[in-house]
């Protein structure tokens, strides 16, 4: 195992050293079909630096125990590491208190928690919930289920041809029946960055709470829950260089306090009798059962790593990659970019005339290039653009212009082969 200090990348004064960063991600040395791996599927999940892998390893090799339960040394050490990860998250998104950070399996579970707990307690027949046309299925289906159960109505903010929210339509949609808004910060299929702060400020004029799906935001741009003034915010660890199966829900204390538990079980209780149960304080009220302790510690380490590189540095690097790729890809005949918003993160979705995205994905795989093809769990958005699927290249802190060149080379070769 490398010493911790060695695993931490070097970003010397104003100089972003992508090659040094790449050394921290062992998987990037892998060969695929005898070609160098070019990993451009970062919106699906990011690769993990040695720093994170080592922290997870260290947990299992030196402190594995259940948390919040034991008086013995291992349990206390594990509890401390787990709670330190919560503090990392709290600081990263600038929450006021660590009791506002609830560990979940990821964004999906976080949204389901709010829809089930807050939603069931507060949404009534005839109420309206607003989402947008660019939501991931995990920010559609939980609300659909709730609306069905409560006989409430789901309303959808439309999207223009560039893949931007039609903001005026949102304002027109808000009325006295609007009781909740759940909205994606950054679209996974298009890369669009939505004007979340403006939207929240408008919603708050009418006391409507807003949940922000930040799954594709926290790894690209600075997210500050106090500045946004969002009521809830959800994200997944695996999209920010952390492990899979762990994520977080942020919530305002008064809302979280008022909500009934989502799941019952160990750790979420204060006292149980057969007649009555009282619940533990925040955030434990929403953390029933043994959590993914190693995952949480890994997520804390991932955030530490991102902090060391600097989110602003990452943003700048990814933006320059996006600009370069957008320019290079325009040279591919018959290619159309889907998602041309003014404000974008490093996602490049496209279609090629008469060539199915799955063929593109398979062909590129033989060149060592990993992209995602399909509907990206945003079927209504695909229907909006009248396409079944796109090919999506998504860039992370460790990608390079040379890798973009390999992608473009592969795409040109596809045109030659498929004519
Ligand atoms: N998007 C993608 O390839 P989970 O699966 O819970 O970690 O994240 C769900 C989710 C929610 N919201 C947005 C905006 C997302 O992008 C995702 C996950 C992946 O685009 C997998 S479908």
SSE arrangement:
Blueprint: H1 4-7, E1 11-12, E2 15-16, H2 18-23, E3 31-32, E4 35-36, E5 38-39, H3 50-63, H4 73-92, E6 101-104, H5 107-122, E7 128-132, H6 141-150, E8 153-157, H7 167-173, E9 178-184, H8 196-204, E10 210-213, H9 225-228, E11 232-236, E12 247-251, H10 253-258, E13 269-272, E14 277-279, H11 293-309, H12 311-329, E15 335-338, E16 347-352, H13 357-366, E17 369-370, E18 372-374, H14 379-384, E19 390-394, H15 401-418
Parallel strand pairs: 5-17, 7-8, 7-9, 9-10, 10-11
Antiparallel strand pairs: 1-2, 3-4, 6-12, 11-12, 13-14, 15-16, 16-19, 18-19
Helix pairs in contact: 3-11, 4-11, 5-6, 12-15
The structure holds ligand C6P.
Number of domains: 2
Main sheet? Answer: 7 strands, mixed
Mean residue pLDDT: 96
Please give the count of helices.
15
CATH superfamily of the largest domain: Type I PLP-dependent aspartate aminotransferase-like (Major domain)
Helix content: 25-40%
> How far apart lie the N and C ends?
50 Å
Structural class: alpha/beta
CATH names the topology of the largest domain as: Aspartate Aminotransferase, domain 2
Poorly predicted tracts of residues: none
* CATH architectural group of the largest domain: 3-Layer(aba) Sandwich
Radius of gyration: 22 Å
Strand order of the largest sheet: 6-12-11-10-9-7-8
Give every kind of bound small molecule, once each. ligand C6P
What's the level 1 CATH class of the largest domain?
A: Alpha Beta
